[in-house]
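HUMAN: Please help interpret these tokens:
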Amino acid sequence: MAVSFDTEIQFLKGIGEKRAALLHKLGIDTVGDLLNHYPRDYIDLTEPVSALSADPTIPCAVRAMVLSKSGEQHIRKGLSVFKVRAVDPDGTELLLTFFNSKFTVDKLQVDEEYVFYGKVSGSLLRREMNTPLIFTLAEARQLIPVYPQTAGINSRFLAAEVRLALSGLLETLEETIPSDIKVQNQLCHLQYAIENIHFPASRHDMLIARRRLIFEELFTLSLALSAVRTARDTPAPVAMQPVEIEDFLDSLPFALTEAQLRSVREICGDLAGSTPMNRLLQGDVGSGKTVVAACACVFAARNHTQSALMAPTEILAAQHWETMQKFLAPIGLRVELLTGSTKASEKKRIRAALAAGEVDLVVGTHALISSGIEFSRLGLVITDEQHRFGVGQRIALGQKGQSPHTLVMSATPIPRTLALMIYGDLDISVIDTMPVGRLPVKTYAIDSAKRQRAYGYIKQHLDHGYQGYIICPLVEPGEVDLGLVPASEYAENLQKHDFADYRVGLLHGKMKAAEKDEVMRKFKDGEIDLLVATTVVEVGVDVPNAVIMLIENAERFGLSQLHQLRGRVGRGKVQSTCILLSDSKSQDAQIRLRTMCRTNSGFEVAEQDLKLRGPGDFFGQRQHGLPQFAIADLANDVELLSAARKAADQLLKADPGLTDPAHRAIRRKVDKMLAEIGDRPN
């Protein structure tokens, strides 16, 4: 049958249902997905080295002629060894060893030349290579693609299926980038790019292809985010006049830092401007973003408009409400809390008060965007930890008013390039200093051999009247076999044994909201000494008396997530400590742990996290309005990102709705990306 980009992968020759199920694990469901499953690396066979000069620390390509093959040697049950003697063009002998590979060795022909790829070891007189990859001389004229793979699916199989798909599709590929933009940005044709990203004759050809495909991905993203912004934009904001808030600043029990005051000035300047504010307020954990947001609410209230603050969890919303009450009630502002667990009678009262203009600030969760919530005059929308909301949810809250001003707060430090992508054209304010008296959290990485010492260290703090956390990773079904223990079982064991003399509490995401609130109340009131928790405490829990944290299986958390968790301690004036416990020897895990021990800077942590995990997984969950990238890397492709954004603006000026038939292909890609993000504009 003829295939197209949309053909289900199981119908491509050589695949079928079983292999299709395996390919699904790689995100490959259609022929188009297969062609967009780009190699992660290449084996370069174009310049083989001599066996004698090969670097023993890295895999190398060695061209050699097969001299002889030994018979099968049975080492033990289930293990057979085959030896093959070969010689390279310089006359150096190379001994090749294969395990359980009779079929592979049988295919090798004596007196034939091949290119063998692997690590070379041995002496000057005889070099050796174990289980090398084998290529014919014809194959050795190009780079061999190495794909992300899974059990049952290897790179050779993927390469063969990609060749098969390309043979029937290359001629019918529809160009997605307009020709003038291609010329301006020196981009190759799509057909060339697809062919040479998979099977380049040289590294130069691969780089040309790669550049084109990265540009296309970022170009599509720029167009998609522009569509989202267009859907959000409306002509005129709620008009606000410059007003004084000095009396509010004087009423606070502390002085704002210069970075906080700078952010307040920037925000108030936007609120009094002629266009709607779209500003991102970034600050590390504990840097004091909430009081800056309170200043914005005071400014809005004195302009006779209402404010809404949306937080991702009930715990965080309740905490914001308490803080805002403390700041704003003394100057007469009316603050309400509205979440999913608010009693029906209370909801009814708050809804009526909002509609009547009797509430200055409402703090809540996504309950704020539910039907039946109406504002008298909504002037300012604040979202906290905005990457946890879909773009559509943010738009929905804004639509409760007539183009209200928007302030986005994030305690997840985001590299500027990534912030530009997520938040589009938002202006950015950064609180880059900590309040006076805050001490950096001391961070240590240990393995399980030092667990008891760590427990003893925690007890020392508890004995002095302080509190602590132990964080457990979420355990999925079937993972207990890997040595992971669910938080509930872990807490129970601690209470029975190591911490029998202390009050141990438990907090996890599957508890009902009322149960979570009760546990947090007890912890804040000092009725719990040690809180065992999952990442539900990652954001927003503020207990200054908690000064020590142990994170179990720390390798299972992303860097930014570890930084967020660490931010739950160090919120008072006592030196706090975070202990990262991990037995992982993986290079990525070691880099993460070393980074955490080296720095308390959230921005440095974020840059490293972006490099390690890429933007699609940067936040640990896919709720932030970014698609998974197949090839682009926002950490390293900044120049192409800038060029792609300019090209997108150029195209949208000429064809705002991408309705021209010549732009049909790119419009389809944009629609697909918007569907992935979950925010297709109406």
In short: The mean pLDDT is 85. The first helix runs from residue 16 to 24.
